[in-house]
């Protein structure tokens, strides 16, 4: 065997060896990447927000279904917030949250409405269903939307309108559009 043939044979074997080594490294890299993808946890479910700020101009109609309402229980009556929210849902309002009122909350009226703007048309619409109760903007609510705080002497909802005309530009926490 001549040197040229020997070198040609060695060169072909070396190229084959290099090619196989490269393909093995490529395959091992693919297997490693695939393994990390398979063992990575699935992304968590993202919950939709209870409500989003929606702007209304003077003259717009605000309906009960566009108002998210949360109810906090400031009484010793178990389940009062849940029952009240269910009644408000039956009246057409969007459901927010229910919980106990923050520790130390005392009411001098059957209920209170807590909002960030006491001139909120959403609060005024809710008030027509609750009765002549104070609308307060000086208390921060832990819940979303218009917050109703019900106390010991809270009875039942009244029959109220399902919508009202907005008199000034306002922002209302409304259920998100699907």
List its salient traits.
3 helices; two-stranded antiparallel ribbon; Alpha-Beta Plaits; 2 domains; alpha/beta; 178 residues; 22% strand; elongated
Short description:
The chain has 2 domains: about 40 residues; about 120 residues, Alpha-Beta Plaits. Helices cover about 35% and strands about 20% of the residues.
Q: What can you see in these coordinates?
A:
There is one protein chain. The protein is an alpha/beta fold and about 180 residues long. It has three helices and nine strands; from the N terminus they run αβββαββαββββ. It folds into two domains: about 1-40; about 50-175, Alpha-Beta Plaits (2-Layer Sandwich). Helices cover about 35% and strands about 20% of the residues.
Chart the SSEs and their pairings.
Blueprint: H1 3-39, E1 52-56, E2 61-63, E3 68-73, H2 80-90, E4 94-100, E5 111-114, H3 121-130, E6 135-136, E7 146-150, E8 163-165, E9 170-174
Largest sheet entry? 5 strands, mixed
Low-confidence stretches: none
Shape, principal axes of CA atoms: elongated
How do the SSEs run, as a string of H and E? Answer: HEEEHEEHEEEE
Question: For the largest beta sheet, what order do the strands appear in spatially?
Answer: 4-3-7-5-6
How many domains in all? 2
Strand segment tally = 9
How much beta, percentage-wise? 15-25%
CATH topology of the largest domain: Alpha-Beta Plaits
CATH class of the largest domain: Alpha Beta
Rg, Å, rounded: 32 Å
| Count of discrete alpha- or pi-helical segments spanning 4 or more residues | 3
Ends apart, CA distance between termini: 80 Å
* Proportion of helical residues: 25-40%
CATH architecture of the largest domain, by name, is 2-Layer Sandwich
Structural class: alpha/beta
The average pLDDT value, as a whole number, equals 90
């Amino acid at each position: 065997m001549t040197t040229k043939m020997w070198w040609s044979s060695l060169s072909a074997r070396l190229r084959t060896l290099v090619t196989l080594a490269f393909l093995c490294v490529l395959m091992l890299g693919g297997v490693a990447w695939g393994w990390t993808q398979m063992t990575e946890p699935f992304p968590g479910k993202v919950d939709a927000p209870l409500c989003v700020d929606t702007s209304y101009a003077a003259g717009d109609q605000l309906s009960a279904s566009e108002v998210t309402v949360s109810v906090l229980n400031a009484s010793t009556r178990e389940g009062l917030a849940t029952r009240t929210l269910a009644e408000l849902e039956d009246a057409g309002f969007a459901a927010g949250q229910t919980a106990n009122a923050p520790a130390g909350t005392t009411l001098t009226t059957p209920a209170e409405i807590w909002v960030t703007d006491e001139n909120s048309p959403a609060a005024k619409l809710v008030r027509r269903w609750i009765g002549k109760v104070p609308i307060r903007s000086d208390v921060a609510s832990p819940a979303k939307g218009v917050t109703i705080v019900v106390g010991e002497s809270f009875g039942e909802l009244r029959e109220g309108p399902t919508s009202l005309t907005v008199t000034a530009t306002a922002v209302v926490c409304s259920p998100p559009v699907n």
